[in-house]
Amino acid sequence: MVIDGAAVDSIAAFYAQLNEQLMRGEDWELGPSLDALNDLLYGGIGALAGSARQRWVITEHAAMAAALGVETTLEWLLAKLDPQGPFDRPAIREQLARLEATGHETYFELVLSVFADHPQVELLLR
Q1: Burial call 80-116: b when 16+ CB within 10 Å, e when fewer
Q2: At what angle are helices 70-79 and 107-116 packed, to 10 degrees?
Q3: Which residues of 9-20 are buried (b: 16+ CB within 10 A; e: fewer)?
Q4: Which of 47, 68, 79, 105 could pair with 22 in a Cys bridge, judged by C-beta atoms 3.0 to 4.6 Å apart?
Q5: Structural domains in the chain?
Q6: Edge-to-edge strand list for the sheet holding 121-125
Q7: Which backbone phi and psi does 85 adopt, to 5 degrees?
Q8: pLDDT value at position 25?
Protein backbone atom coordinates (compact mmCIF):
# COMPACT_ATOMS: atom_id res chain seq x y z
CA MET A 1 0.00 0.00 0.00
CA VAL A 2 1.40 3.38 -1.02
CA ILE A 3 -0.01 6.65 0.24
CA ASP A 4 0.91 9.69 -1.83
CA GLY A 5 1.65 12.17 0.93
CA ALA A 6 1.83 15.05 -1.56
CA ALA A 7 -1.82 14.43 -2.45
CA VAL A 8 -2.96 14.50 1.18
CA ASP A 9 -4.06 18.07 1.77
CA SER A 10 -6.71 17.25 4.38
CA ILE A 11 -7.96 14.50 6.64
CA ALA A 12 -10.65 13.69 4.06
CA ALA A 13 -8.00 13.34 1.31
CA PHE A 14 -6.09 10.81 3.41
CA TYR A 15 -9.15 8.61 3.82
CA ALA A 16 -10.09 9.10 0.16
CA GLN A 17 -6.77 7.46 -0.79
CA LEU A 18 -7.41 4.58 1.58
CA ASN A 19 -10.89 4.06 0.16
CA GLU A 20 -9.72 4.30 -3.45
CA GLN A 21 -6.98 1.73 -2.98
CA LEU A 22 -8.43 -0.64 -0.42
CA MET A 23 -12.19 -0.51 -0.52
CA ARG A 24 -12.81 -1.21 -4.22
CA GLY A 25 -15.55 -3.76 -4.58
CA GLU A 26 -16.95 -3.02 -1.13
CA ASP A 27 -20.41 -1.51 -0.81
CA TRP A 28 -19.25 0.90 1.89
CA GLU A 29 -16.27 3.18 2.62
CA LEU A 30 -14.12 4.01 5.60
CA GLY A 31 -15.15 7.17 7.37
CA PRO A 32 -12.53 9.79 8.28
CA SER A 33 -11.73 8.30 11.66
CA LEU A 34 -8.66 7.05 13.46
CA ASP A 35 -10.81 4.17 14.72
CA ALA A 36 -11.54 3.24 11.09
CA LEU A 37 -7.81 3.30 10.28
CA ASN A 38 -7.14 1.11 13.30
CA ASP A 39 -9.81 -1.38 12.18
CA LEU A 40 -8.38 -1.39 8.65
CA LEU A 41 -4.89 -2.21 9.90
CA TYR A 42 -6.15 -5.33 11.65
CA GLY A 43 -6.44 -6.72 8.12
CA GLY A 44 -10.05 -7.81 8.08
CA ILE A 45 -11.44 -5.14 5.77
CA GLY A 46 -11.37 -4.53 2.02
CA ALA A 47 -8.25 -5.46 0.09
CA LEU A 48 -6.43 -6.21 3.34
CA ALA A 49 -8.87 -8.93 4.41
CA GLY A 50 -6.89 -11.97 5.48
CA SER A 51 -3.47 -10.34 5.19
CA ALA A 52 -1.15 -11.36 7.99
CA ARG A 53 1.61 -8.84 7.20
CA GLN A 54 1.32 -5.44 5.60
CA ARG A 55 3.84 -3.04 4.15
CA TRP A 56 2.85 0.58 3.82
CA VAL A 57 4.83 3.44 2.31
CA ILE A 58 4.01 7.11 2.72
CA THR A 59 5.77 9.04 -0.02
CA GLU A 60 6.35 12.75 0.49
CA HIS A 61 5.60 12.21 4.16
CA ALA A 62 6.81 15.72 5.07
CA ALA A 63 4.06 17.20 2.88
CA MET A 64 1.48 14.98 4.55
CA ALA A 65 2.83 15.89 8.00
CA ALA A 66 2.47 19.58 7.15
CA ALA A 67 -1.05 19.14 5.78
CA LEU A 68 -2.15 17.15 8.83
CA GLY A 69 -0.26 19.40 11.21
CA VAL A 70 -1.25 21.76 13.99
CA GLU A 71 -3.79 23.88 12.07
CA THR A 72 -5.68 20.88 10.67
CA THR A 73 -5.60 19.17 14.06
CA LEU A 74 -6.93 22.27 15.80
CA GLU A 75 -9.86 22.42 13.37
CA TRP A 76 -10.52 18.69 13.81
CA LEU A 77 -10.50 18.93 17.60
CA LEU A 78 -12.58 22.12 17.72
CA ALA A 79 -15.25 20.43 15.59
CA LYS A 80 -15.46 17.71 18.25
CA LEU A 81 -16.41 20.26 20.92
CA ASP A 82 -19.96 20.50 19.57
CA PRO A 83 -22.20 20.22 22.64
CA GLN A 84 -24.53 17.92 20.70
CA GLY A 85 -21.68 15.63 19.63
CA PRO A 86 -20.79 12.27 21.16
CA PHE A 87 -17.22 13.15 22.12
CA ASP A 88 -15.68 13.50 25.58
CA ARG A 89 -15.35 17.30 25.62
CA PRO A 90 -13.02 17.49 28.67
CA ALA A 91 -10.64 15.02 26.99
CA ILE A 92 -10.80 17.03 23.75
CA ARG A 93 -10.01 20.24 25.67
CA GLU A 94 -6.96 18.48 27.20
CA GLN A 95 -5.81 17.42 23.73
CA LEU A 96 -6.24 20.99 22.49
CA ALA A 97 -4.21 22.36 25.40
CA ARG A 98 -1.37 19.88 24.75
CA LEU A 99 -1.38 20.66 21.04
CA GLU A 100 -1.31 24.40 21.64
CA ALA A 101 1.42 24.09 24.28
CA THR A 102 3.71 21.67 22.47
CA GLY A 103 2.71 21.53 18.79
CA HIS A 104 2.54 17.76 19.14
CA GLU A 105 -0.15 15.12 18.88
CA THR A 106 -1.00 16.39 15.42
CA TYR A 107 -3.31 14.31 13.28
CA PHE A 108 -0.28 13.06 11.35
CA GLU A 109 1.39 11.96 14.60
CA LEU A 110 -1.84 10.27 15.68
CA VAL A 111 -1.93 8.38 12.36
CA LEU A 112 1.65 7.23 12.96
CA SER A 113 0.74 6.05 16.46
CA VAL A 114 -2.15 3.99 15.07
CA PHE A 115 0.29 2.31 12.68
CA ALA A 116 2.74 1.74 15.54
CA ASP A 117 0.07 -0.15 17.46
CA HIS A 118 0.11 -2.88 14.78
CA PRO A 119 3.29 -4.98 14.90
CA GLN A 120 2.26 -6.85 11.73
CA VAL A 121 2.37 -3.55 9.81
CA GLU A 122 5.62 -2.12 8.45
CA LEU A 123 5.45 1.60 7.75
CA LEU A 124 8.11 3.35 5.69
CA LEU A 125 8.25 7.14 5.45
CA ARG A 126 9.84 8.46 2.31
Answers
A1: beeeeeeeeeeebeebbeebeeeeebbbbbebbebbe
A2: 90
A3: eebeebbbbbbe
A4: 47
A5: 2-69+106-125 (3.30.370.10)
A6: 2-4, 54-59, 121-125
A7: -80, 165
A8: 86
